[in-house]
Amino acid sequence: MKLWETRLLVNDFDTCFRYYRDVIGLPVTWGKEGDGYAAFAVNSETNLAIMPLRDLLEDVALPSTDRTTGGINRAVISLEVTDVDAMTRTLQERGAELIFAPTDRAAWGIRVAHFRDPEGTLIEIGQRLPAA
């Protein structure tokens, strides 16, 4: 397993997009202003990504009690694995709290599952889908 990206869940996507592109100076590797997801190269193997908070919460169908702008649901630790389904089973066997079962996200180009750590941080495991 390796860290795939750090994703910030933001309220104002376009302002944050311009900030990380223009102020911080990170090269855009995916997305554009107005999209709703963007990744910026930090180095050759790691990305910083941004995504509207509301989009992720809607997409993974979190219960309304989890919808907040506080500490929970503000960041996602995204880990790349070779087999999401196998790793999901392993993590559940180890006691991890599964909150969203493995699902293909064709628009994202990945298959993902979501967990929570003991403090409520959202953890995503994902594998890249074969190119269509």
Outline: globular
Largest sheet: 8 strands, mixed
pLDDT below 50 for ≥5 consecutive residues: which ranges? Answer: 64-70
Average pLDDT works out at 83
Q: Roughly how many Å apart are the termini?
A: 25 Å
What's the total number of strands? 8
Report Rg. 15 Å
- Into which percent range does the helicity of residues fall? 10-25%
Number of alpha- plus pi-helical segments: 3
Structural class: alpha+beta
Helix-strand pattern = EHEEEHEHEEE
In short:
With 132 residues, the chain is α+β, with helices and mostly antiparallel strands. The chain contains three helices and eight strands, in the order βαβββαβαβββ. Strand 7 and strand 8 form a beta hairpin.
Task: Give your account of this protein's structure.
This protein has 132 residues and is of the alpha+beta class. The chain is 21% helix and 39% strand. The protein is built from three helices and eight strands; from the N terminus they run βαβββαβαβββ. The protein has helices at residues 13-23, 53-59, 84-93; strands spanning 2-10, 28-30, 38-41, 47-52, 75-80, 97-105, 110-116, 122-128. Strands 2-3-4-1-5-8-7-6 form an eight-stranded mixed sheet. The longest helix is centred in the N-terminal third of the chain and has 11 residues, at 13-23. 20% of the residues are buried.
What descriptive keywords fit this protein?
132 residues; 8-stranded mixed β-sheet; 8 strands; alpha+beta
Write the layout of secondary structure elements.
Blueprint: E1 2-10, H1 13-23, E2 28-30, E3 38-41, E4 47-52, H2 53-59, E5 75-80, H3 84-93, E6 97-105, E7 110-116, E8 122-128
Parallel strand pairs: 1-4, 5-8
Antiparallel strand pairs: 1-5, 2-3, 3-4, 6-7, 7-8
